[in-house]
Amino acid sequence: MAVQVESQGQVQEFVDVLGRRRWQVILPALFVLALGCVAAVIVPKKYRVQTRIELREARVQEDPQRKNPEEAPTAREIYNAEHHIIHRNRVQKLIRDELKWDDYARLSEADRDLYIDRVLKNIEVAVLQKARNEGSTFVDIYYADVDPQRAVEFLNRLARLWVTEVIDRDRNVLRKELDLAQDRLAEAQKYATLAGKQLADLLQQNDLDLVEPTAYGQVNRDKVDVRIGAAELERDGLVASVAGLQAQIEALEQQWANTEPTIPVVDTQEGTSNVAEVAALESAIKDLQAKQRAFKPAHTTWQLLDEEIKAVEKKLTALQQTATEAQVYTRFEPNPLRPQLRQQIDQIAAQAGGQKARLLVVEEQLAQARRERSERVEVLRRRDELKREKQVRDEEYALQQREYTRKKAALEAATEAYGNPFEFTSEAQAPRRPNYPNPWVIVGFAAIAGVAFGLASALLSEYSRNCYRGVGDVARVLVVPVLGVVSTIVTRTELRRRRMRRMTTAFSTVAILGGLAWFTWAWVYQREVLPTGLVQAIADLQLALK
After folding, report:
1. Comparing C-alpha atoms, which of 448, 379, 438 is closest to residue 33?
2. In the chain, what is the straight-line distance between the N-terminal and C-terminal CA atoms, in Å?
3. Residue 352, Cβ neighbours under 10 Å: how many?
């Protein structure tokens, strides 16, 4: 009776494959692990040192044309610190001339370039960003080397060399700018003096005035212009005055013509008038009548008073008859106003004649001044040109003076003790242990890589063949049941060959792993037992890996 062979699961099949090919996994893992151990001891251990430099804010206002006039040149260049520090020429000069490293001196020119390239790769620079552009800026510089003391010395010297060169470069730039500003100041002063001398000579030779002060500032005026202005002003005044006098004369002539030659004179002959006596008599009559009213007509006193009244009235009548009236007579005399008007007219006419004569003189003077003005046009134009040129030269001289003062103050501030904005907040110190690479990391990575390589090799060998790998493969593809399995027939010759091959592999593996283990031990503890050529080759390899 046939028995159906059941196929295995994928996990079980995978385990069976690993079981059959366990040595194909273990041996590569051991070889890679051994090579990882060798690499862990061969790869040069580097000591990473660090120094920090603080750049304080410095307010040196030597260049207002820059984006930030109050920012020092060192602050503007700090963001290029990486390119300035990792500078090939500076590093080469430091190693060759100051530090004088022996391993560098023994190399050829081509190898020296490679050596410098390796050193540059081991330098790192980090500029720490400051919050809101306020406060100090910090620069961290790192360097890794197999020799911790040499790393410390190199980093400290490199950092100080960079700081010194930055400060010296900025000071040299300020000195050059100061010298240039001084030359420009001297040149501006020379041209300003020359322009002033030319203007003074022109004014002196042509008897010119430079300016005339007014309430609104300085206005260009010439003596001839002043004379013309004064003459025009006087001429206008004389014309107005003559016109006024002429109007007065015409008005007086009209008044004289309308004035009568003679004027009537009234003479009065006074008459006799007894007004006072008449008034006295009338008053006496009233008094007597007042007294008479106190008595009756039959009374003797009344009668006496009546007689007195009649006598006084008689005197009054006689006195009134003797009074005469005044007589009025009219006669004609020459009018005295006409000679006065004529005299006034003659005086005003004489005054107008004098002013007309003065007007003629002023007009002649004005014409003469205008002729002189037309002859001095070219001179005045030259004066104005020289004045403008002198003003421009003076402004340029003042500008160069301010520039020179600013540059001088900037250089003085940069050369003072507080002019160095750099400060080393932490010096480079040699660490007790190398920072990288970590040998345990290398060994662990080698172990993982070896196992991965072994697994990949075993699985690739197992599944890359186009054949049936077992009964399960046959059972899965056949529709008829599998009745049985015939085991592989191994002859004695094949068995001996298999054993021989396994012994050879085992011996080779032990020999190789033992040799790698001995080499690792010797390299760490007794390097002198190794061949000189091998040591030199490994040293060259380490030099390339630095």
Report:
1. 448
2. 74
3. 19
H runs (alpha helix) in 86-222: 88-93, 102-105, 109-121, 148-206
Q: Tokens for 289?
A: 């009548």
DSSP E strand boundaries for 250-407: 262-269, 327-334
**Paired residues of 124 in beta bridges:** 142
| Cβ contact 148:431 at 8 Å | yes
Q: Tokens representing 279?
A: 């008034």
Confidence of residue 417 (pLDDT cuts 50, 70, 90): low
pTM score: 0.51
The Cα 56–Cα 420 span in angstroms is 9
Cβ-defined contacts of 539-545 (< 8 Å, 24+) = 541/42, 542/42, 542/43, 542/44, 542/146, 543/103, 544/118, 545/43, 545/44
- Asked if residues 188 and 392 have their Cβ atoms less than 8 Å apart, the reply is no
Which DSSP state fits 45?
P
Which residue, chain included where needed, has tokens 């000195």? Answer: 175
Exposed / middle / buried, residue 80 (Cβ in 10 Å: 0-12, 13-18, 19+): exposed
CA 129 remoteness from chain centre: 23
pLDDT tens for each residue of 252-279: 888 888 878 777 766 665 656 667 777 7
Q: Kindly state the DSSP code that residue 64 receives in the 8-state scheme.
A: T
Residue 134 has what pLDDT? 62
Residue 6, SS3? Answer: coil
Rounded to an integer, what distance in angstroms lies between the CA atom of residue 393 and that of residue 383?
15
Compute the distance between CA of residue 149 and CA of residue 518 in angstroms, rounded to an integer.
31
